[in-house]
Amino acid sequence: AVVSTQSTGDMTSEQIEVANQYIQYHTEKFGYDKPNVSFVQGYIDNLVGAGLKPDHFDIAVSNCVVNLTPDKKAVLSEVYKVLKPGGELYFSDVYTDTDLSDEIRKDKVLWGECISG
Question: What is the arithmetic mean of pLDDT over 46-52?
């Protein structure tokens, strides 16, 4: 049988606390003897610094996180650091085909609403 192990993260301790509350439930629900998931607190532009191992993961998935980070190149660089050779990144996010002004890009309200960033 193939048993996968996964790690996931968030930048807030509150989200990590909520996720950790459900580890045992899902371990039992899916019939595992021990948990196959771990949660780490950190930022997507510093995954190794958050404790994820380099060259360790087959797949990385991001859902609407890249747009919240000012340094998109750093995000991609970090993701590829933790992927095994041949590993794949899958992500969905908000994009624009127009350059945004600095005023719009740095507007915290628009950033939080995924309109800028």
Answer: 91
Give the pLDDT band of residue 64 (cuts 50, 70, 90): confident
* Contact by Cβ (8 Å): 47, 88: no
Helix segments in 1-117, DSSP class H: 13-21, 23-29, 72-82, 102-105, 108-112
Cβ of 107: how many Cβ atoms within 10 Å?
A: 16
The answer to whether the CB of 82 falls within 8 A of the CB of 45 is no
Residues in Cβ contact with 70 at an 8 Å cutoff, skipping those fewer than 6 apart: 117
Q: Long-range pairs for 27-36 at CB < 8 Å and ≥24 separation?
A: 32/3, 36/3, 36/4, 36/5, 36/6
Which tokens go with 37?
């998931």
Q: How confident is the model at residue 3 (pLDDT cuts 50, 70, 90)?
A: very low
- What pLDDT was estimated at residue 31? 92
Judge contact between 88 and 59, C-beta under 8 A. yes
pTM of this structure: 0.74
